[in-house]
Known about the structure:
Blueprint: H1 2-25, H2 27-48, H3 53-103, E1 107-109, E2 112-116, H4 117-137, H5 150-177, H6 193-197, H7 200-211
Antiparallel strand pairs: 1-2
Helix pairs in contact: 1-2, 2-3, 3-4, 3-5, 3-7, 4-5, 5-7
Amino acid sequence: MLKEFEKRLLSSLILMPIAVVFIIQGSVYFIFFLSLLFLATSYEWIKMTKKNEFIKIFGLIFLFFSFYSAFCIREDYGLNSFLFIMIVCIFTDLGGYVFGKTFKGPKLTKISPNKTYSGVIGSFLFSLIAGLVFIKYFWNPESYRIESDQYLILFIILLLSFISQIGDLIISYFKRKAKLKDTGKILPGHGGLLDRIDGLIFVIPIVYLLFK
Length: 212
């Protein structure tokens, strides 16, 4: 576990600052970054679903809409909102990994043998802590005074974490159908890009539709 965690941590420390720079810059820089992600994830999706044309095409359309939604949220609703969504999803994934590997326990589903009930608890717990810390110390009150809506923010964090975990399971289902351990090998300790952002690609379009 320690060696795999070190790989995950190292790749995250390298990739996160790069991603944050493009996110902060916004505009054409963010479009360029999202385009690269779209091409990479589309390639992984095509490899994973090559035997089912309908699912393949539907998935590509969904990926496009997801990355389009990411751009719209960043540009229309601000850096604050986008970073908040990212933080919740990242710590959902991290909490699931840490708690799942540490406490193990009963398996959640056959779709993803590595997922456990302890991992689900860890996902909710880590996302709550990270989301509340972000709101407390980094949220810009000029965008929206969300601090006054304590119950609302708790509900939002838990909802985003839940959707993120469902997204993870959906990608795991297609990996299992394709008999693949990972969607790719581009990220040490993570596998492919879809392995890394599987929760985000489901959370972002749903949040965008809710905003609209």
